[in-house]
Automatic annotation (TrEMBL), chain A:
Gene3D superfamilies: P-loop containing nucleotide triphosphate hydrolases. Pfam families: ABC_tran (PF00005), oligo_HPY (PF08352). One of its GO terms (biological process) is peptide transport. Its main location: membrane. CDD domains: ABC_NikE_OppD_transporters (cd03257). GO terms for molecular function: ATP binding; ATP hydrolysis activity. This is ABC transporter ATP-binding protein. Transmembrane segments: none annotated. It is a peripheral membrane protein. One of its GO terms (cellular component) is plasma membrane.
Automatic annotation (TrEMBL), chain B:
One of its GO terms (molecular function) is ATP hydrolysis activity. It holds the Pfam family ABC_tran. One of its GO terms (biological process) is peptide transport. Residues 279-306 are annotated as: Disordered. This is ABC transporter ATP-binding protein. Residues 8-273 form the ABC transporter domain. Keywords: ATP-binding, Nucleotide-binding, Transport. It comes from the Archaea. PROSITE patterns: ABC_TRANSPORTER_1, ABC_TRANSPORTER_2.
Amino acid sequence: MSLNDTFTSETELHGVSDPIIEIRDAEVVFEMDRGVSRVLDNVNLTVERGEILGIVGESGSGKSMLASAILDAVVDPGILSGSITYYPENGDPIDVLSLSDEELRKLRWESISMVFQGAMTSFNPTMSIRGHFEETLDAHDFDIEEGMERGHQILSDLYLESERVMDSYPHELSGGMRQRALIALSVLLEPDVLVMDEPTAALDLLMQRSILALLESLKEKYDLTMVFITHDLPLVAELSDRLAVMYAFELIEQGPTNEILQNAGHPYTRSLLNATPNLDAPLSEMRPIEGSAPDPVNVPKGCSYHPRCSVANNRCVEADPEYQQITEEHVAACFHCDDAVEAIPLTHDQAVVQEDEP
Amino acid sequence: MSSEEPLLSMEDVEVHFEESTGLFDFRSEPDVVRAVDGVSLDVFEQDVVALVGESGCGKTTLGKTAIGLQRPTGGSVSYRGQDIWNARDGRGDVEIPFGDIRRSLQIIHQDPGSSLNPNRRVMKILEVPLKRWQSQMSAGDRRREVLSMLQEVGMSPPEDYAGRYPHQLSGGEKQRVALVRALLMDPDLILADEAISALDVSLRVEMMDLMLDLQKRYDTSFLFISHDLSNARYFAAHAGGRIGVMYLGQLVEVGPAEQIINDPQHPYTKVLRWATPDLNPGSGGGEPPVRKIDIPDPKNPPSGCRFHTRCPEARETCTKQIPPEYTYDELHTVQCFREDDTHEYWSSQQLEDTDAELFKAADD
């Protein structure tokens, strides 16, 4: 099978009919003294218009690198290759990696906007929130008066007193308010896609969940497509339509959220689900994942998960598994999906069954 | 848990911080942040208590007060019957010297990176407490002790880890070093202040298992602080301990872990239960079950029950009266009028101002 064939069949297989971002063969490498560090390895991902896609992975699995790649914002001396295509609602597809600096500047914020982790460091501490809003509008040649009106509206959509927040400096707001102000700023220029990298880390759970609920209504109101990147699987599972799981710089499983939660095919995903503290699962069933994630310079041959995997055999050591189709929209990069389902029972699933029984 | 004398006893503890208003401002009243307000809690031998609550609710301050790092502005903290601050100041009959108390109550900080000296190797860091408290120990014994403890917490080969600098360790490994440092003091109680929050979700269970294992082996008590109810439950339930729920400086509900999770009484505990994501699709989601998303300013806490501004069940009475502590079950207490079936709360007017309405009005 040639590469191109895989792609067409894959697009069909993911059930994505109206893509907004297409990532093909994305790879990021850093040349280091002790070797080549491949921090994004052959990633193929399609984001559908209007969906919320969750990307889950441990720290150091390359998920932030994937976010940077979408905006061609990989830091030097990292080298990004592959192709990233953005499909605007009206007009021709845009090849993100071939844009000039000026075109790229316009694409960011206006079409694809990004919320980074840690709102404190994203804001300029010497500038009021109003200053940030005005500066952003000005830099992109938007009408300031009209834009500020929209700014006030978005802030109150996020349950913030817009006048007070606009007049505040970042340090005068609580962590949760600051993070919401940053989200408001990122949708100010009416982007189509909002990429969020751990937008709720460092906040407590109640605020995280509240922000998630607000994001859902924001998405409906402003017609956004969202990519939500986090290490916190249960958190994003509540919100997202589809999930993509990263391990060792590769996407090892993709599919609709419900299917991943109930019928994950990759042993890593199943272990990750079992390693998550959960209020409903029986206590004795929670198990940490043995071993640790590989070094980017020295990723194991074959399937990169095989040293930690309980169902791995020689085949996994020799060859890197392609995506196996589990259902029409659900794929996992593993030779032993069926064995994994039997070998690693999902603990949270049992809890559901037990609850259902009278 | 035993009914004997508590290891650590806090009675009506208050910690108020005065915010200075500037050098030349003599007239205005200084702002007082009521970080902890009237909390009583006992910790027993080999006990585990998990404190949960939102950021800013005073759980860290309460924890630090418990182990004698923070002087309370009111109430008392005693270790095996000896008031910690009397021992510190040499007031009255001091039965247990402050040095011994200090040594028995240890802490693991939230950020393991900044609690280890970056310029010293692991061995050097871990030798310090032994040099200070067991000065008669020979250098060779000291090194053997450190290496065996590193082995104990799963850092193997220990010789390799002992020679590293903190930046050469992963987050989980740094936290293990901090844990070893606390354990080398042979403490009675360890305060684990968000000790696993900085770790990846997948590593948290492993770290908690390690702490539970050591808790059994060394007969240590733990005061475990977390904002995540599922972690608190995992830790406390495995050790047969309790969960305490804090809101704006007050302990609103305390009880056995599984009871707090499966049969929460205080409306705030129920809100935290909602906020804890689970993996069952379709459950949860939707509007948060609080009337207001943001926590009120602790400088100016609401009158009556402090949760009344956000509580979905709040009524007129809650704005005026402070709920007393009701006993729901053995070891399970709640501060909410809803425990009292005959309270006037039930006949007063429901409060209905919510964020959603407030901002819907702004839309029009």
